[in-house]
Design a protein that fits this description.
TIM Barrel; 372 residues; homodimer; elongated; nine-stranded mixed sheet; alpha/beta
Chain lengths: 372, 372
């Protein structure tokens, strides 16, 4: 952390700022929730794309971290973070070579498997290098994106168990389709219901493969629900650490005390660059700075800001004011809550770190662009 | 350009590939169209974010290039490309300092102005460094994003003309609101109509400031329309060089021979990473690799591919097949046309360059992330 003399409103924009006080509080809060419930925490680095932030989560007590892609895991291992679970299948011969190369640098690297042919290819590549690795059986609990069908999962576990260079240590079940359901009651009912399949698979696999002791699941939308399940041992939460308007809106609908505890640590600063109209001004953050997906960015500040953001092309945004409130002047800097944190973070190379209005350092977003 | 032995389907995915044969043809075609009409070409680097590609456009005859943001201009000047027009206002004291710093490295750098206070601030900063620079008066022709209102534009030109360190050399008028209108007849009528205001301002300003000889306008959607206007001297086209499904769909609706001449030079490669379902497979390009904005990515290849892409989260896409056609197997590589080229390019660090199936080199996307 490099100390600087900048004040937040003096930063060049658009830029991302992380409020360290909120961030540290959110990390402690989620870790304490998991620990109290007897669960391990394996936060998803796909959200923040930052090894320095992952290290802060590990220092607070996380078991390891998740990465969505091999290249994210490569960046994490390069930064010295070794206990990484890659949560999507790695399938091509070249990618498998990269994966085995990474195992040689991190003995605790793990990857998910959802296909017998993929298991056999990985086992063979590992054997050629005299290596072995831990794997999680990926079970599809209704998202239908990756994962073996529950009906085929035990047979796949048996197949993996025959591979001499694969150690089956866990079952992964991610219910992405329920994370953003607005009604807490419905979200709870659907999450618990779809994880029943995963629990059944996990019990059966554990009875056949005693080393398979981890059931890894959940997300920011359901962590406080899924920890009710005795078999769940590891929570894969991501967005809680930064937050965005999509999850904040669910929080508001829910009035869950767990959920509302996560304040948005991530903010976007943007500057008014044109003001020639009575009813709006133009700011310098558009869809190349705030990923346009789902929700709308929101002007932060006083609880009910009269200012509203709207999209205005690749490089610009439009700010209008409700109720005849005054518009900000050219050069004024506004603070926005972003609509979807994960892909927005992926547009920037660094976070500026703040405490109150003071800029106290920066962190590289060293997993930025790691889509492979 | 670094020669390699890779074949296109062997590249790690997701990745961007540029078909050099199509790219070179598109660059020649647009330049010939402008030259034949007696217009200068100033392609927008915000589309491709690549100084090597900008250099190819300059070598084909372009006068200079456009940049949307100061940081893009900084990257272009660093790469040795000096005649850059920054097409949005630069307003804060720190950004103005960066701008003046850049003028000291590029005498032909230009910026737009739409506000008297901004003109005065820039003039003062330049004077403090003993520098001067060329500026374009930005006129709003209906997009209402930046630009002085036509009714206020001549007074602003007079104000700029009194600034000793500013040389008013052009008028900019960008009609972004008409570029994607599907009907050619309606697009033509609306583009010509809204540019009437710009022509009137330009004539008046030119009569008062004889050095102001450039009227700069247009985009890929209207270049073949706007070159009918005698006063228009410079075309700011961007997307033609890469193309995307948004512009291809307009092309199809239009049946304009000019427009259809631009084939998509940009492609995205993606790999099937999970295949446990009868009616779809999962690929490794999601909304962190293809910007989700407007149109839908399309599977390239045979003219009417039976395969269809759909969004499947931050890291994944879903491929389904029409008419019972077979689905691709795990590990298969597909080629996609992206939905919106500009922000998608901004997600990657390099283009792979191809001729047919051969990978012949790569170019860094050196303006990637330059949103400031």
């Amino acid at each position: 952390m490099r100390p600087t003399l900048d004040k937040k409103p003096e930063l060049d924009t658009p830029c991302l700022v992380l409020d360290l006080d909120i961030l540290e509080h959110s990390i402690r809060k989620m870790q304490a929730t998991a620990t109290k419930a007897g669960k391990s925490l394996r936060p998803h680095a796909k959200t923040h794309k930052c090894s320095a932030l992952a290290r802060m989560q590990l220092e607070a007590g996380a078991t390891g971290v998740c990465a969505a892609k091999l290249s994210e895991a490569e960046a994490l291992v390069k930064a010295g973070i070794e206990d990484v679970l890659i949560t999507g299948p790695v399938v091509t011969p070249r990618k498998l070579e990269r994966l085995v190369g990474l195992v040689s640098r991190s003995a605790s690297l793990k990857v998910v498997l959802d296909h017998a042919g993929n298991a056999a290819s990985l086992d063979q590549k590992l054997g050629e290098s005299g290596l072995s690795m831990g794997v999680y059986l990926d079970v599809d609990v209704g998202l239908h994106r990756s994962g073996a069908k529950p009906s085929a999962a035990v047979a796949l576990a048996d197949k993996i168990a025959t591979c001499p260079n694969l150690r089956l240590v866990g079952v992964q079940a991610y219910a992405g389709q329920v994370q953003h359901i607005r009604s807490y009651a419905e979200r709870r009912e659907r999450s618990l219901h779809c994880l029943e399949d995963a629990v059944a698979v996990f019990r059966e696999v554990r009875s056949r493969v005693p080393a398979c002791t981890t059931l890894s699941t959940s997300g920011t939308g359901t962590f406080d629900i899924d920890l009710e399940i005795a078999e769940v041992s590891e929570l894969q939460v991501g967005s809680y650490v930064l937050m965005d308007t999509e999850y904040l809106d669910i929080g508001s609908a829910l009035h869950s005390s767990h959920f509302l505890a996560f304040e948005p640590a991530l903010r976007m600063l943007t500057t008014v660059i044109s003001a020639n109209h009575e009813n709006h001004v133009t700011v310098d953050a558009g869809l190349k700075s705030i990923y346009r997906d789902g929700g709308m960015p929101r002007v932060a500040g006083p609880a009910l800001s009269p200012l509203e953001y709207d999209w205005f092309g690749d490089e610009y945004g439009m700010i209008s004011a409700k109720d005849g409130s005054p518009l900000p002047a050219p050069g004024a800097v506004l603070e926005l809550l972003v609509s979807h944190c994960d892909p927005t973070v992926n547009l920037f190379d660094a976070y500026h770190l703040t405490r109150g209005d003071a800029v106290v350092g920066s962190w590289p977003i060293d997993l930025r662009g790691c889509s492979q």
